[in-house]
Write a structure and sequence with these properties.
Chain B: One of its GO terms (molecular function) is CoA-transferase activity. The complex is a heterodimer of chains A (284) and B (255). With 284 residues, chain A is of the alpha/beta class. Chain A contains 12 helices and 12 strands. In chain A, β3, α5 and β4 form a beta-alpha-beta unit. Chain A starts with 12 loop residues before the first helix and ends with a helix. The chains are: A alpha/beta (284), B alpha/beta (255).
Chain lengths: 284, 255
């Protein structure tokens, strides 16, 4: 496990407190690059050091997942894709796969959404088309194929097989959003997958760019994009908390920084150096 | 004029032709050539006063009209509202199976690629899937993929409203015959040959003894592509648009 010194004292105490909610062996949901990744929580999670994590990427992952893998905190990753986008492959993930150091549960995007939808509705599973004949399905003993009990055709047409995805429940969901109000209502706009993650999670930890004084539910226009406080466990302010990713409607991604990471993290040593050095200053 | 058409312009014009008749096409975030082909089709239809073409660029804030998160694209496709989509692959085989996961024995792939993304679903439900891979080498076009992210064909009885329609590479254009199943070489891009394509392809495919050359865009289409379409492209793919402009200038100088 990666042990780092020199930057812990700079970490925000609120984020450190939130990170304490994560304990070893938990299943954690993290959002896709462009939806609102709480990069600000990455270092507090690494400092916290709770390992054996099972990560669920909704529905794909990138820098944050690669850093948690590099820090040795990850037991398994369920994802439909993992990369640094324009900056190329995810170096610590690719190495861990090659070494057999993590369990990979390859999925397809709509299957992850289907699993979250089952959790959202309190259902045991959601059926989904596609997948039959793929090695994605062949490597997922937890997914089942049944014959559609509502098949319209005559018996001569034969069965209509369809895949069932079991509900995805997670211990903790972590994401970043533009704003929350004093009551803990979080504005997620049209990034509805953030709500799906929260519905499926026992604990939801959110970082935001700012706290607003007026209730986000007071205006019907903002209310339509609100994840109500009912589903939110804790909120903390982290300005530019998605950096080097962008945050929709707020700021763009810092592609140069992603490229810098991609280059540095090709080796375990380079990764450790990157995590120790300049990135933190740049973030502040 | 014709002599100065760049290879990428031929690809873009070919994609616009393959998309003719679609109303809604979805394009991956990092797919500037397919996006340009879709934008060219949109411009051609607008010029002709035909029904408008809708383009969804995934991961783009400006060209994303979805309001229900990243699940909506897949729901939309499942409802039959997406007519065309593009898929690539680290490996593609003669049955149009695609591999986006990795080379070698799964799961400890010797080369790991990002993953299957939505392919294991979209390949089944989008009627016109265009396989696009510029690199045309035997390491990409293999006899049999090491991992099937999404199968090219399904046995009877499997719900399948979509699948492979064509394969476009840097060397040529293939059509896919779902009944046989297999690829057929439709045309060879200027500057390439049948022999070169056979050499670079790890699977067998049908072809004429002397396949035609891929059609070049006519001057009016080229003007549209170099004008308004390139300006459209600039907004979402500024680096790619700048590169295209440099290539066009260089080709004009050489001609």
């Amino acid at each position: 496990m990666l042990r780092m010194t020199g930057w812990e004292e700079k970490l925000d105490p609120n984020l450190r407190r939130m990170a304490e909610r994560v304990v070893p062996g938990m299943r954690i949901a993290l959002p896709v690059d462009y939806a609102g990744v709480s990069m600000a929580m990455t270092r507090p999670l690494i400092e916290r050091g709770a390992g054996d994590l099972d990560l669920v990427c909704v529905p794909t992952g990138g820098l944050q997942v690669d850093m948690l893998i590099g820090a040795g905190l990850v037991r398994s990753v369920e994802t439909s894709g993992l990369s640094l986008g324009e900056a190329g492959g995810a170096p610590r993930f690719n190495q861990a796969v090659k070494d057999g150091a993590i369990v990979i549960r390859d999925a397809t995007c709509p299957a992850i959404h289907a699993g979250l939808m089952a959790a959202q509705k309190g259902n045991p599973f959601t059926p989904i088309r596609g997948l039959i004949g793929s090695d994605v399905l062949a490597n997922r003993p937890d997914w089942k194929v049944i014959d559609n009990p509502f098949a319209a055709g005559s018996p001569a047409d034969g069965p209509d097989p369809i895949v069932l995805i079991p509900a995805i429940h997670v211990d903790v969901a972590i994401f970043h959003a533009p704003m929350a109000d004093r009551a803990g209502n979080v504005w997620i706009g049209r990034r509805r997958e953030l709500a799906a993650m929260a519905y499926a999670a026992r604990t939801t930890l959110v970082t935001v760019e700012r706290i607003v004084e007026e209730s986000l539910l007071a205006d019907e226009i903002t209310a339509a994009g609100v994840l109500p406080a009912l589903y939110v466990s804790e909120v903390a302010v982290a300005e530019r908390g998605a950096w080097p990713y962008g945050l929709w409607g707020e700021y763009g991604a810092d592609t140069a920084e992603l490229q810098r990471y991609a280059k540095a993290a090709r080796s375990a040593e380079g990764f450790a150096d990157y995590m120790r050095a300049g990135a933190l200053e740049a973030a502040q | 004029m014709i002599a100065s058409v760049t290879p990428r312009e031929i690809l873009i014009a070919t994609i616009a032709r393959l998309l003719d008749g679609v109303h809604h096409v979805a394009v991956g975030a990092s797919s500037p050539i397919p996006a340009a082909g879709a934008m060219l089709l949109r411009a051609l239809k607008a010029r002709a006063g035909a029904e408008p073409v809708r383009i969804s660029i995934l991961g783009s804030v400006e060209h994303n009209f979805f309001t229900n998160g990243s699940t909506e694209l897949f729901d939309c496709a499942g409802q039959g509202r997406i007519d065309a989509f593009f898929l690539g692959g680290g490996q593609i085989d003669g049955q149009a199976n695609i591999n986006l996961v990795g080379a070698g024995d799964y799961p400890r792939s010797s080369v790991r690629w990002p993953g299957s993304f939505g392919s294991a679903y979209l390949y089944f439900v989008v009627p016109r899937v265009i396989l696009f891979r510029e690199e045309h080498t035997p390491r990409v076009f293999v006899e049999k993929v090491d991992f099937i992210s999404a199968p090219g064909v399904s046995r009877p009885g499997i719900h399948r409203t979509g699948g492979p329609y064509a394969l476009l590479t840097g060397k040529g254009l293939f059509a896919f015959d779902r009944a046989r199943p297999g690829f057929r070489l439709e045309s060879v891009h200027p500057g390439h040959s049948l022999g070169e394509i056979v050499e670079a392809t790890g699977f067998a495919f049908a072809h004429d003894a002397a396949p035609p050359t891929t059609a070049l865009p006519d001057p009016a289409i080229l003007a549209l592509l170099r004008g308004p379409v390139l300006d459209d492209l600039q907004e979402t793919y500024p680096d790619f648009a700048a590169q295209m402009r440099r290539e066009i200038a260089a080709a004009a100088d050489a001609a």
